[in-house]
Design brief:
Blueprint lengths: L1 H7 L4 H7 L5 H14 L3 H7 L5 H12 L2 E2 L9 H4 L4 H7 L1 E7 L2 E6 L5 H10 L3 E6 L2 H13 L27 E5 L4 E3 L3 H4 L6 H14 L4 E6 L3 E8 L2 E9 L3 H11 L11 E9 L2 E12 L2 E10 L15 H11 L4 E6 L6 H12 L6 E5 L9 E5 L8 H8 L6 E4 L5 H12 L3 E6 L4 H10 L4 H7 E13 L5 E3 L3 H7 L9 E3 L11 E11 L3 H8 L4 H10 L5 H10 L5 H7 L4
Parallel strand pairs: 1-4, 3-4, 13-17, 13-18, 14-15, 14-16, 16-17
Antiparallel strand pairs: 2-3, 5-6, 5-10, 7-8, 7-12, 8-9, 10-11, 11-12, 18-21, 19-20
Helix pairs in contact: 3-4, 11-12, 15-16, 16-18, 17-21, 18-20, 20-21, 22-23
């Protein structure tokens, strides 16, 4: 209890602030008088009178008393540690236990000079006490969290719970580490916690992320049900159940995810979005987090992006046939025009856009992107992140970008008429513009732009090419099985009925987790508006007429390309028909 005894003998707050040259004698006397009148403690009065900020006082206390200053919003508190102190004591003196290491309990106070608080603390616990200081509102939030959450692990003298409270990462942390870049704080996984047989919320969250990474998952769903928490992973486009957790862990589980994402852990009524980075077995992953309140509690979805994966040039892509590849390269090397990539969410549009950008990324070109969010960082490219909530919309940023002397512009997505108009105007004034659009296929992209009230003559004169694409589940090479399709199916697909044709179907093996599929492959269609198609655009012809005209001139549709991948044994006919059913 030596630390506590030293605090009891330390100077008063006013003397500390004067010694720190934050106050003069006149200000101190005035503040003391007002504090007495208002029945306030001196620190509260100084803040209320706008003489000093709470941070001024905390910094002075930390330096003069030689105690740690803690930012509680940036650390994970185990509720079992917090509950070593009674809720009554914590709320009465605005203090919370945050760390138990050996026989030393770290307690954070808003006023470490409150002799009544320190004395009560001495009598309440049998541990050695280390005192730290933090903002009062953060302590109150932490108290609310601790006493609303269930115990995660038992806290006693034999357990070492060591949270990394400083900003220096540990060098040896075992297999993986997790840290939130938005808060510039590294939260490392303590080996002793990882090896504990008890449930630990930090280990639990990291195990969920590690499992998803190993399974090649693109998304993690943390879903509270009535009586349990369901963890699901989206693998190759489909959700799979991976874990069930007792319902009582939902609050600390979501709180941990919020802390890693630098979200407000006290906000439970509104949706929140953020992101954080992790380093996992040498790979750097960017994880985008969305938290949404539901009737059973807050649900979190974590989207995983492997930033260490290499973006290949479009010319190096093994997924596009050489004939189509040559056509795309000819189009994207033009000096101006609008090149669009279309398809539903999760069809790989962004990857294709980045492949084209990487192809065009040369030192003699000024490349600028406007994205929300920036998914891959590429050297020599000026990447701007739109912030819709902050007023940084696509169209407003694009107007500024056009004053930056760009040669090539990537617009992450055309979402509205204003963005569409500026993108088209830029393409008609000497800039090459790449963008994405949510449509069913390449042909319906033109109708979509007309529906957005873009003049047909602008569409016909600006668009130089449109890629429509889908991602299909790829058959596992180790267990796929050949079969002979029915004659009726061959006839329906327009394939010769008098030839021996084999399709393949899924079976399932350990390599593919008994699903029959492993990985995904893209199918494409490339629409290049010729004079006939441009005429139909000006006439506002319907989608089917434009598609039929393009097919007569050699256009290969998504379904036709999909059938070719079936014949190559890469996917199933069911996958192709499902992906192209509305086309």
């Amino acid at each position: 209890m030596a630390i506590l005894n030293n605090l009891l003998k330390s100077k008063k707050l006013g003397e500390i602030l004067v010694d720190s040259k934050l106050l003069n004698a006149t200000q101190l006397e005035y503040a003391l008088t007002e504090a007495k009148k208002r029945n306030m403690r001196l620190g509260t009065a100084l803040v209320a009178l706008n003489i000093l900020s709470e941070d001024n006082i905390i910094n002075a206390l930390s330096q003069q008393l030689n105690i740690k200053k803690i930012e509680l919003s940036k650390i994970a508190i185990d509720p079992a540690v917090g509950k070593i102190l009674s809720e009554t004591l914590s709320r009465q003196f605005k203090m919370v236990g945050i760390n138990l290491y050996g026989n030393t309990l770290t307690v954070v106070l808003s006023d470490p000079l409150n002799v009544f608080a320190v004395d009560a603390l001495k009598k309440a616990v049998s541990y050695d006490i280390e005192i730290a200081v933090a903002r009062e509102h953060e302590i109150l939030r932490a108290i609310d969290f601790v006493y609303s959450a269930k115990d995660i692990i038992k806290a006693d003298k034999n357990e070492h719970i060591n949270l990394n409270l400083n900003k220096e990462p540990q060098k040896d942390i075992g297999a993986y580490s997790v840290f939130g870049t938005s808060s510039s704080v590294n939260t490392e996984i303590n080996k002793e916690i990882m090896e504990s047989e008890d449930i630990n919320i930090i280990k639990l969250v990291n195990d969920i992320i590690v499992s998803a990474s190993k399974n090649r998952a693109s998304d993690i769903h943390v879903e509270p049900l009535e009586d349990e928490i369901l963890i699901r992973e989206r693998i190759d486009g489909e959700l799979f159940e991976t874990k069930k957790i007792p319902k009582q862990f939902i609050n600390p589980l979501i709180a941990r995810i919020k802390i890693m994402s630098n979200m407000d852990i006290a906000e439970k009524r509104n949706a929140q979005d953020s992101r954080f980075n992790i380093t996992l077995s040498g790979k750097e992953l960017d994880i985008r987090v969305s938290v949404l309140p539901t009737i059973n509690g807050e649900k979190a979805v974590l989207r995983i992006l492997d930033k260490s994966s290499k973006i290949h040039k479009i010319s190096e892509s093994a997924d596009i046939d050489n004939k189509t590849k040559d056509k795309i390269l000819k189009l994207v090397n033009k000096k101006y025009g609008l090149f669009l990539i279309t398809g539903p969410t999760g069809s790989g549009k962004t990857t294709t856009a980045y492949s084209i950008l990487t192809e065009l990324n040369k030192i003699n070109k000024n490349l600028v992107t406007v994205e929300n969010p920036v998914e891959y960082k590429i050297k020599y490219i000026n990447q701007v992140e739109a912030n819709l909530k902050g007023g940084m919309s696509f169209d407003s940023i694009l107007r500024s970008v056009l004053r930056q002397d760009p040669d090539i512009i990537l617009v992450g997505e055309i979402r509205d008429i204003d963005t569409a108009k500026i993108a088209i105007q830029a393409s008609l004034t000497g800039h090459f513009v790449i963008s994405t659009l949510h449509t069913q296929d390449a042909s319906s992209t033109i109708s979509r732009l007309i529906d957005m009230e873009i003049e047909p003559f602008l569409i016909s004169s600006s668009i130089i090419g449109i890629i429509g694409q889908r991602l299909l589940k790829k058959l596992c090479d180790k267990c796929k099985e050949p079969f002979s399709p029915d004659v009726e199916l061959l006839k329906e697909l327009g394939l010769p009925e008098d030839k021996t044709i084999y399709f393949y179907k899924e079976k399932g093996c350990p390599a593919c987790r008994d699903t029959g599929f492993k990985g995904r492959i893209p199918i494409y269609e490339l629409l290049i508006p010729d004079k006939n198609l441009q005429k139909l655009i000006l006439e506002k012809a319907d989608v089917s007429m434009m598609r039929d005209t393009a097919v007569k001139n050699g256009f290969t549709t998504l379904r036709q390309h999909g059938i070719l991948t079936v014949l190559e044994g890469l996917t199933t006919i069911e996958e192709v028909l499902q992906a192209t059913q509305d086309i």
